[in-house]
Amino acid sequence: MIALDPWAWAALALAAVTIGISKTALPGGSILAIALFATVLPARTSTAAMLLLLIVGDVFALITYRRHAHWPTLLRLAPAVIAGLLAGFAFLALAGDGIVRRAIGVILLLMIAVTLWRRWRQNRTEAALPTPGGLVLSGVYGTLGGFTTMVANAGGPVMSMYFLATRTPVQVFLGTSAWFFAIINLIKVPFLAGLGLFEGHVLLMDAVLAPLVVVGALAGIRLARRMDQRLFDRIVIALTIMGALYLLF
């Protein structure tokens, strides 16, 4: 087991609960967990430790929302996401932690700016702009999502911006996200294992934290049932901005 101070364990416990909530109620909310893990643990170790806890959360997300996924969206994103995963693996193997974090922060802020600009144009013109469902824009979001999820488990905010930009209803948003990240996180396991990041102390630490992910996931299910679309969108955008600023600075 990694020797950590009590405050560090408390931070990891809060992060584990947040992971569960993000999986069943607030996609993109895991950015807080990313920040907490990266504060307590070395960056590469935090990426591996978080991945296994995210997979635990994925199980509950699939149980709850598996029937609400929009599969044409997933299939459209798949080629670009695979390309992003490969690019992220190369970047993770070669780049330093500081460069990785700042790059992700810039990407997230750009995605937020694009999404907010599109909504402002729609409200001003009272006409629907073309949604980013075409191959070009879905390719951009998919590549960035694959890249950021590989290097820092931070693909949630990027994909949240994609689903928000297409004005996806809450249940479809959660169902499509659930399948997307369940598949992607399983694909990432052999890549990180190849880098030797799943050491014994990491697995033991995750075994201690996993029950807290379950608690968070169950709480998130109740929260999602009471949340309206406008509040949901605002919370996701706010969490994404906070996470992007943390990673950038």
Automatic annotation (TrEMBL):
GO CC annotations on file: plasma membrane
Pfam families to which the protein is assigned, alphabetical: TauE
Localization: Cell membrane
Keywords: Cell membrane, Membrane, Transmembrane, Transmembrane helix, Transport
Membrane topology field: Multi-pass membrane protein
UniProt record similarity statement: Belongs to the 4-toluene sulfonate uptake permease (TSUP) (TC 2.A.102) family.
Protein's name in the database: Probable membrane transporter protein
Organism in which the protein naturally occurs: Microbacterium saperdae
